[in-house]
Amino acid sequence: MITEKLHFRFLRFALLSVTLFSMVGCSDASKAKGSSTFFGGEIINPKGEDVILYNRRIKLSDTLKLDSNNRFSHKIENLEPGVYTFWHGGEIQFVILEPNDSVMIRLNTYEFDKSLVFTGNGAKKNNYLIKTFLNNEDKSRNLVKYSQNKAPEDFETYIDDRHEKELNEFEAFKEKNSISNFASSVIKANIDYHNYADKEIYPFAYFGENKMVHLKDLPEGFYDFRKNIDYNASHLSDIFAYNRYLFFHFDNLAVTDYYQNNTFHSKFNRHQLSYNKTKLNLVDSLVTDEIIKNNLLKYKTREFINHSKNQDEVNEIMASYLAKTTSEEDIKYLNGLIASLNNLQPGKGLPDLIVIDVEDKEYTIAEIVDKPTLIYFWSTNKKEHYKNSHYRVKELQTEFPKMGFMSININDNPDKFWKETINKYNFNLGNEYRFKNPKEALKTLAVNYLYKVIIVDNKANIVNPNVNIFSEDFETLLKDMIQKKELVLK
To answer: Where would I find the Thioredoxin domain in this sequence (predicted)?
Structure first.
């Protein structure tokens, strides 16, 4: 049975889906400005016609077209050294680029991260960077298991030993390979902040939300590493490990404040308004870098808005947010999200969005729904999620045979990738659809993370606009809806 352990993976995917942050240059590498830098490569099984290379901090965004051999090349004069993002087919990854580098990538979109290999001048640092990224991903899969099964002292020893081993391996790499201080700082940070984040996440997994008061019982020195934290590391602002750390760090700091203002035995509620306003206040007080601050404020505010059912509280969190952000683009985005969520209230009809079935026939969702239905979403770019979600739905179909289940793919690349996936894993073709206009649909349905599920009645009226089928109490929630006749199964 898939349990709350899998729900914790949402935090990882949710973060991954929002970390399109900006990158930078720094220190010694900047002295070499003035030369040319080359970036190119080959995409096997491309999911589009181009690769986008961008760096929001220096306002660089270059669209690099694939040729007939699925290769691309790009020359950059007077490159600002930093960590750049390249994007293809909805997948993103990073590359350290410095003046005089000539970096080639090769990857297969079917295993985007795992197949990625760098060659050329500048390859060694980037291959090590992707190695640490994949290592972090692998360790994250086991985090909940380790967290729940290890007492605080044992968990601290486990993380500290792992951290030391990873740093020693990196030092051995640097003894054999010459890389710049800048590249070294990025790779070391990727190692450090992943381990730091696991310590920030630990109490949520070990104590559970109902017993977060025991945060005070962690070993003395458990968070000593915090004195090394740089809240304004502009050169790390697009690194997943750094952003993952900051997200959980501010959650954790706000818990301490929560229990300073609530009774010892009060039940912790991560969706409480005061707790979420505290997070915004902490970000505002500790972060000065505009890009890092604006992104943290945006996603912490969005997190609250997505789960709030109280318009007055939404207005209050937005007032706090507006007093702190400097991003007009983010303000517009959050106002649009609120408008979409207001149109997704229980009792309202689901918006008329067009979906396409495996035979390329078009329907509105209402034309398909003829019984209470659970609508879930997935992307071909998130293999672990789509396998888990379809497996979970099979369980639910057995337990609730009179319910309908509708699976919608959200990708906007050629449909062959969608069809290849559903055929490879033998998904139920009668339940599989994709959006005709994914961008419009995702905005209209406020689908900003893949774990969102919508439940509708037999007339496609919304019963619950945001549930998580991986949550521990989901079956209880569904049974309660049926008992109260919010869902009428025939």
So the answer is: 344-483
